[in-house]
Design goal:
Length: 216
């Protein structure tokens, strides 16, 4: 156990999407050039606000049908995981997928999907018959990790961890701990936030005086 606990853990690949880059090289270059990716977002409810939006190719690893059935947080997780695997050069077919873990830290998730569902059912006088059968799997807290597991046919431990702004760090820490405990051979770890497409969260920040305005 002591040898396992002290063993070096190697990060073999990195995948990401951010307002200023959709892969590590692009992200690093824009950071060094001082490009944040923050721009004017035209929201039909909130109006014009300053925000950073991840504009990645969401159909690279998912079909349009899968995107409709899933969540944005899950889609981001799937994109980043597949990019990390490509970066690492790891062939999952050479490993037992029951020994691969997925640990996703989240700030929040499901808010955008809840808002869409509420607006949709309002059109039918709040008749529960018109609630999508996909809403439950979209709303469960484990959704982001679960979507990654389904996408890659991974049957090992997979779960999300709520940690607000420390989400990415706590996901990586959890992966590190599971590797050192010998629970998994490979850990897919990181964090996801999906605030931009949920206007109640944006409105909450604005009402709390924490939202940047165009006058800055």
């Amino acid at each position: 156990m002591d040898n396992v606990a002290s063993a070096r853990i190697v990060i073999t690949g990195v995948g990401l999407t951010a307002p200023n880059g959709n892969n590590l090289q692009e992200f690093r270059r824009n950071l060094l050039d001082g490009k944040s990716g923050v721009t004017v977002l035209h929201d039909k409810i909130m109006g014009e606000i300053l925000a950073g939006v991840c504009n990645y190719d969401d159909t690279r690893y998912q079909s349009k049908k899968e995107l409709r059935r899933g969540t944005r947080a899950g889609s981001i997780g799937i994109y980043c995981t597949n990019e990390a695997l490509i970066d690492s050069g790891i062939d999952l077919d050479l490993y037992d997928r029951a020994n691969i873990g997925i640990y996703v830290g989240i700030t929040e998730h499901g808010c955008a999907e809840t808002v869409v569902e509420c607006f949709a059912i309002k059109e039918f006088d709040y008749n529960p018959r018109y609630v999508s059968h996909n809403f439950n799997p979209k709303g469960i807290s484990n959704n982001p990790a679960g979507e990654v597991a389904l996408n890659l046919k991974i049957t090992g431990p997979h779960y999300t961890i709520g940690a607000a702004c420390a989400a990415g760090n706590i996901g990586i820490v959890q992966g590190l701990q599971m590797l050192r405990l010998g629970e998994v051979d490979i850990a897919i770890a990181g964090g996801v936030s999906e605030t931009i497409h949920a206007f109640p969260i944006i409105a909450s920040f604005k009402n709390g005086g924490a939202l940047a305005t165009l006058s800055i």
